[in-house]
Amino acid sequence: MNRPERLPRLRLRVGATAETILRSDHPWLFADSVREQNRAGELGELAVIFDRNDKFLAVGLFDPDSPLRVRILHSGKPQSIDPAWWQQHFAESIAKRTGLFDDKTTGYRLINGESDGWPGLVLDRYGTTLVMKLYTAAWLPRLEEIVALVVGGWPHERLVLRLSRNIQGLAKTQFQIADGDILRGPPLDGPVVFLENGLSFEAEVLRGQKTGFFLDQRENRRRLESLARGRAVLNAFSFSGGFSLYAARGGARSVTDLDISQHALESARRNFALNQSDAAVASCPHETIQADAFLWIAANAQRKFDLIVLDPPSLAKREGERAGAIQAYGKLARHAVAHLNAGGILVAASCSAHVSSDEFFAMVRESVRGTGRRFEELETTAHAPDHPATFPEGHYLKCVYLKL
User: Is residue 239 in some structural domain?
Assistant: First the structure.
């Protein structure tokens, strides 16, 4: 993974503000922070970053066509980024998951991008299938070398490649690779099945959202299970029914999945079918409703529940959408409360990195308070242990539990 020998090392010098940011271990250097550059850089090569006094700051992957010009691999004292470094780096990332899960959980994140020192790269396990997703083109020239690390560092039957939408065109034209390619192992003719706390789930690893399943909500699903006994549960924005399946195992009186996607609801029904050997799941009535969750919740207050989960997709994909997203979260919580019986529980989650935890929690509390119903706050939660967040933009997941 070294630079081509024909070229001198790519050297960048940055200004005072960027120096401060990089010294705080932030993993991104933007193009407008670069003050000097010794030559044109190539996609994916190592760029060494120096401060105004020519002192080493960091080294990372260079992308000449992205405003996020360098993804930082290492900062602090200089180190040689050689094959031994990469092997150790991979091993250290994997070791962080040691002891987190037993054999009843075979779906979890092995590498969490920037927060594990792999900027723009995630690696998830689904049983014997691994899924690697790239969010930056800077990894594309190094793909075979990274695959070799994965193949040598974690036992698996299959390795699947997923690519973010913004790099799929380049990957196809310059590197002849595509989203959903199977890099190692046998072909797939459908979803893979994995375990999460003893429940079986399917993951559509070739074409599903993210890497096929939302592994980051595992701990919140487990918390919900402990609250569900005897309750009628509505799972809004239900996707493949994860919260509902946990609620059913926890003794829910009934569960209702609400989602605009018929494909997602079909997946939820298959996940329930996978777990019919569990008596509580088998005996729990499972309803699915295909509708826009925002509209359905606003228009059907006559339907009452004892526990409601609000887990919408990101409502603020960019900073300019932040204010509108905060208002939308509040409106959603306010309408949901109208569906809750006395003693009911509202579980509201956000995966919008541009909306802070403080902003989200404050809006949900304010909205519920504005309905005139008193509540007890049971808990707030953040990231799962296999999804660490070590820099501000990495803190996206937040969830609050309110009991009316």
Answer: yes
